[in-house]
Specification:
Helices cover 33% and strands 24% of the residues. The protein is of the alpha+beta class. It has a 6-stranded mixed sheet with strand order 10-12-7-13-11-14. Strands 3-6-4-5 form a 4-stranded mixed sheet, with helices on one face. Strand 8 and strand 9 form a beta hairpin. Helix 1 packs parallel to helix 4, helix 3 packs parallel to helix 4 and helix 3 runs parallel beside helix 7. The radius of gyration is 21 Å and the shape is globular. The mean pLDDT is 93. Keywords: ATP-binding, Cytoplasm, Ligase, Nucleotide-binding, Purine biosynthesis. InterPro entries: PurM-like_C_dom (IPR010918), PurM-like_C_sf (IPR036676), PurM-like_N (IPR016188), PurM-like_N_sf (IPR036921), PurM_cligase (IPR004733). It catalyses: 2-formamido-N(1)-(5-O-phospho-beta-D-ribosyl)acetamidine + ATP = 5-amino-1-(5-phospho-beta-D-ribosyl)imidazole + ADP + phosphate + H(+).
């Protein structure tokens, strides 16, 4: 006799996973959250937006990419959620939006309740750091498509920004200053290259590296820094013209997305020391500098473009929030490119 369980889907395991994650998910709740008795939808009271003159909704979706493979190999599942939230809500922060709520989606070969609870718990914990509510999600078991220990995660978030406070390239002017906000490490981009280096070199996840002060695996699973509340604080207490989330494509390519076609950003390589993990990967993988530049954030996870008189106040605000920041470069007349001096 054919049954759903015989096909590899364990409904009871899925129900247990939901129970295990509930206590952590509730921590991300915002006052605007409304309960849906059926549990099929996440509800959010948008009357809270009546305080806005012209509210614009912003939305973003993303995943973690092949970093999940390293989490699987190391058996560490509670950090991947931070990566997911960071990738999604910090895209919203670029336009100056406050993230309101988020949903997640997990696909796996087999539901292991404790593993799913760790993943979702990490997402919920990160939502607390981002000031956003985790209002719902879905876990799908795909036996035969994914191996029992394989999984992938994705998410989507919605935020709001006042129309006349929308940040972006149209505000950027020659003379503006580019301020770097430090990354916590590789974040969630470039892991296909990382995995290639691990396959093709003598470097392993278990190696303890002196300059890292821990194993390679521990370093590579460092959670993505979440900037959403930091960006809002910078925007609300000083003047910011634009942000740039440094993700796939590297520092220069992402920064160029926040520039109008009339200016260039000139970045000073001497303004910071590239963290050891990037130097390690470059050395073991024999990666050319150009490939390193277009693959990794190199220690800069977010950049702010501000008028010159706001540079010092922005640096002071970042310091009070425990966020390393420094002057990375300047904006000059040009054609919409970011280059290294």
């Amino acid at each position: 006799m054919s049954t759903y369980e015989a096909a590899g889907v364990d409904i009871a395991a899925g129900e247990l996973a939901v129970e295990l994650m509930k206590s952590r998910v509730v921590r991300s709740r915002r006052p605007e959250c409304v309960d849906d008795a059926s549990g099929f939808a996440g509800l959010f009271d948008v009357s809270a937006l009546l305080k806005y003159r012209r509210p614009l909704l912003a939305t973003s979706t993303d995943g973690v990419g092949t970093k999940v493979d390293l989490a699987r190999r190391l058996g560490i599942y509670d950090t991947i959620g931070h990566d997911l939230v960071g990738m999604v809500v910090d895209d919203l922060a670029v336009c100056g939006a406050e993230p309101l709520f988020m949903t997640d989606y997990i696909a796996c070969g087999k539901v292991v309740p404790e593993r799913i609870a760790d993943i979702v718990g990490g997402i919920a914990d990160a939502c607390v750091l981002a000031g956003t509510a985790l209002v719902g999600g879905e876990t799908a078991e795909h036996p035969g498509l994914l191996e029992p220990d394989e999984f992938d995660v994705a998410g989507a978030a919605t935020g709001v920004v006042e129309a006349d406070e929308l940040l972006g390239p149209d505000r950027v002017r020659p003379g503006d200053v580019v301020i770097a906000l430090a990354s916590s490490g590789i974040h969630s981009n470039g892991y296909s290259l990382v995995r290639h280096i691990l396959r093709e070199s003598t470097l392993t996840l278990d190696d303890t590296i002196a300059e890292l002060g821990r194993t390679v695996g521990e370093e590579l699973l460092t959670p993505t820094r979440i900037y959403a509340l930091d960006c809002l604080a910078l925007k609300n207490t000083s003047t910011v013209h634009a942000f740039s989330h440094i993700t796939g494509g590297g520092l220069a390519a992402n920064l160029a997305r926040s520039l109008p076609s009339t200016v260039d950003a000139v970045l000073n390589r001497a303004s910071w020391t590239v963290p050891p993990i990037f130097q390690l990967l470059q050395r073991y993988g024999q990666v050319a500098q150009a490939d390193l530049d277009k693959t990794f954030n190199l220690g800069v996870g977010m950049a702010a473009i501000v008028p010159p008189e706001a540079a010092d106040p922005i640096l002071e605000i970042a310091a009070t929030r425990g966020l390393p920041a420094w002057i990375l470069g300047e904006i000059i007349p040009g054609t919409g490119k970011a280059t290294f001096a």
